[in-house]
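Researcher: Next entry in the queue.
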Amino acid sequence: MKKQISFILFMAHATFVLAQQESADTLQFSLDEAVLFAMENNLNAQNARLDVDAADQRVWETAATGLPQVSANVNYNYNINLPTTLIPDFTGDPTEKIAIQFGTKHNATAGVLGDQLLFSGEYIIGLQTAKIFKEFSRRNKERTEQQVRQGVIENYYLVLLGEATLQLLEENRDNVRSTYEETLQLYKAGFVEEIEADQLEVVLIDLQNSVLSMERQIMATKNLLKYQMGMEREKKIVLNDSLAELVANIDYTVTLGVDFAIENNIDYQIVSEQEKLAYMDLKLKRTAYLPTLSAFYSMDFAAQRDEFNFFNADQDWYRASMIGLAFNVPIFSSGFRKAGVSQKRIAYEQARNNKEFASEGLQVEFEQYKYDFANALEKYRSDKKNLELSQKVVRVTNTKYVEGLASSLELTQVNNQYIQALTNYTSTMVEVLNAKIKIDVLMNKI
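Model: Structure for this entry, 446 residues:
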């Protein structure tokens, strides 16, 4: 008895541990929770945020070029052979030259140089451009995050569609199996022909194959969803929402009556920033015609030795210091600067055209998406009505079959019609949701 009790306790503990392990490996998500998880863990979203950080550093890098710059230098030279110079022989015949060597074997210099930019058109425009580029990076981050959210939502819908379809297939399979088993018993009792049971068996086999195929499809779709969420593929995922609930939460009147505010669209904001960058690039090229002014200060110490004793405090180092201004005025470049400005002007015109083209295209897309949403909504309502009618026909035909008033062929046909109605209904729900997503993306609401 003690051994039996110990074995039971051991099995209970093992079952509890396995349940805890399975629970730890399984994560449950509503649609909103799945989106939030993706925002934290999707690698594309993380890289987009890093791009914004890099843009911040670029602004500071550009700003720092106009701030004081200080550098230090130390140089050491060893003259293997001292340079030789020919000079007139002042002690004898001046027309004759004598060779003489100047300098020391060991020479060292140490100095500090500081400079400050006082005026540069290129610096001013470059600083403004860096700030616009930062805003451009932020818009790209928002676009990437929007794409991640859209991908997660659409695949979330696909998983729900697969699970809903699987549930319907399993229910239908179980009903057909029950009818088949009853028909088989009737055949054995001699009340129906064998073909009645055979026809139902064919339907049952097809349904079982459909169930297995849908299970594999759901697994593949879940793996894609986990990939987009940045989730480990080994983890199990359970979705808490349902297609019916998500469709029921749509405010159809608001969606169909919304006006398009193009300034809120991310793509339009991006092409607007690209236009600004192109204009700043043009202004930057124009600064090539402007002068530059900078100030500098330098201080150097030099030492010459016949021996390497630069660290001897008794030996002298000779200081030289200087302060000054550097003023540079461009005068003539053989058309080089003009050609550069012309190229940037063309690029700016192209950016303006791209913005206008994008604006028109987004307007057309918005109207098309509203039509698609209205069509999907009408189809959803129609398919919902067809499903209700199909369910009614299945119930009536099943009753007739039991009473011997309908054949297995009629039952099979009605069953196939019901499956098609179910498929159409669930697929149309996803069409409605996806049509809504496209409108929300254009309106920057996801």
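Model: Residues 16-22 have pLDDT under 50 and may be disordered.
Researcher: Noted, moving on.
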